[in-house]
Amino acid sequence: MPIPDAALWEAIQADADTAAFATLYERYWRRLFTAAFAQLKDREACQEIVHDIFLTLWTERARLQIQAFPAYLGAAVRYQAARHQRALSTSPLRYADALDTLSTAADYNYGETQLLGLDLEQRLAAALGQLPQRCQEIFLLSRMQHFSNDEIAERLHISRRSVENQLTTALRHLRLTLKCMGVLWVIQNLG
User: How many domains are there within the chain?
Assistant: First the structure.
């Protein structure tokens, strides 16, 4: 006849009986693992959860008052699994064995990118502000509104060659100005 859970728990609390603890572990670990796996579908996380539950039982044995072991352990595994899921949903970090298994969408910091984009826009606007008005206008029509050189020439009633010269002047100025700011890569994308 198996020893009741309550008797095993009393032996663990009173004498730090490792044999009684091993008996409880063998009796319940698979049930806890199965319950955790039903929620998480992650073998390593479930093993860690079961380990943590039994570690807490051992380290807090003098303080814990457990009346019904199956109910206590069932609640503990549900709580730990839910806690693990919350941690995953709030954590921006994911771990993978290989870089190619990571999706770029999940690992991309959109907030930082937006701030860098705003900073770059301000720097670009400041650099453009140093150019003559006509040069600024041609650059904005070409690079921001995506007009062709012919369309710009027709719209502004100037020659195509004048448009090309103004764009060359603007790009040269931006390369020199923004290179000092460490954003040369943007100009390469613009020109």
Answer: 2
